[in-house]
Amino acid sequence: MMKDGSSVEDGQSPKADAPDHKVNRGLSIADLVMRAFAALGTLASGVTMGTTNQTLPFFTQFMQFSRATYNDLPTFTFFVIANGIVCAYLVLSLLLSIFHVIRSAAVITRVVLIVFDTVMMALLMAGASAAAAIVYLAHKGNTKVNWFAICQQYDSFCGRISGSLVGSYFATIGLIMLIILSAVAISRS
Amino acid sequence: MMKDGSSVEDGQSPKADAPDHKVNRGLSIADLVMRAFAALGTLASGVTMGTTNQTLPFFTQFMQFSRATYNDLPTFTFFVIANGIVCAYLVLSLLLSIFHVIRSAAVITRVVLIVFDTVMMALLMAGASAAAAIVYLAHKGNTKVNWFAICQQYDSFCGRISGSLVGSYFATIGLIMLIILSAVAISRS
């Protein structure tokens, strides 16, 4: 299943395992901390977007609705779902990360983590970038195709949805770092 | 720099290296082929989007322009740039991939590939998903915020921009597979 990191204690091949063992434990602890922060980032993003709404006291010329919620735009619903899935995965994967701190020479389980981290990073990036494209449009509008900048009316709504992107992008960078950490740890095992 | 895969020929430790060596060479060839296909995918996407335009013979009620090109929407410009960067990277990385077919036990260079593959996958996914969000809006529109479905007018334009997403998403899946392949190859070295 895996190369056993406790070979030093077993006295089987103590030649060069000791320093590798320490470095890999360090990498595992970095993995654990970064994973926890990434989970918090997705949680903050998902909750911020999911609770965003703004009611205007009047009907404006261009808007036929006076209340804006995140699920008026399907892309934002996808963003909330993506953040939820990735957050749940990151919390679950903390268990495997803790296991790697204890058994720091594990290889197979690190490959498994790389596979899932990569897929989850792709999902999170898809959600964040799709939402960013719509947020950009909400701010700037597009005069060429007559899509109005709704942020002129819904300023607090737009402030919150823009802010909610930050946690997602931080978590994406965190996941990229996690993939690299795992690759380095595997190469040293 | 790297663990040398030619140790079998050197006669240093022929015990279990031979099968690993063969499997890793197989993984390297799979990497090379998939990388070439991913490069073609990004090339096709970038060129399709970058050459898309449609001129309408009349001004319609909702449109103030009669010619639609991809760079009317900044998101599509980002999509073309992202595809271009990733395509150039994938072509360059073919050299390293060929090197891995020859020296199939290389470790450090595979870690380097994982780092760049991950960053490029994130970039490509960002471009593809942002473009997908806008394409979705162009097709469906959004009655809540009065963003009209421009595809009712620009049908051939919309057909091409939708099609151009396919190559990008295939390349993204290809890059995910490449990251996994590299991780497996490193774990076997």
TrEMBL record, chains A, B:
InterPro entries from the UniProt entry: CASP/CASPL (IPR006459), CASP_dom (IPR006702), CASPL (IPR044173)
Keyword Cell membrane recorded: yes
The entry's keywords: Cell membrane, Membrane, Transmembrane, Transmembrane helix
Gene Ontology terms: cellular component: plasma membrane
This protein's record includes keyword Magnesium: no
Residue stretches making up the Casparian strip membrane protein domain: 25-173
One Pfam family per UniProt: CASP_dom
Main location: membrane
TM spans (from-to): 32-56, 76-99, 111-138, 166-186
Compartments it resides in: Cell membrane
Topology in membrane: Multi-pass membrane protein
Stretches for region Disordered: 1-22
Subunit structure: Homodimer and heterodimers.
Family as reported in the entry's similarity comment: Belongs to the Casparian strip membrane proteins (CASP) family.
UniProt xrefs under NCBIfam families: A_tha_TIGR01569
Name recorded for this polypeptide: CASP-like protein
Organism encoding this protein: Punica granatum (Pomegranate)
This protein's encoding gene: LOC116210654
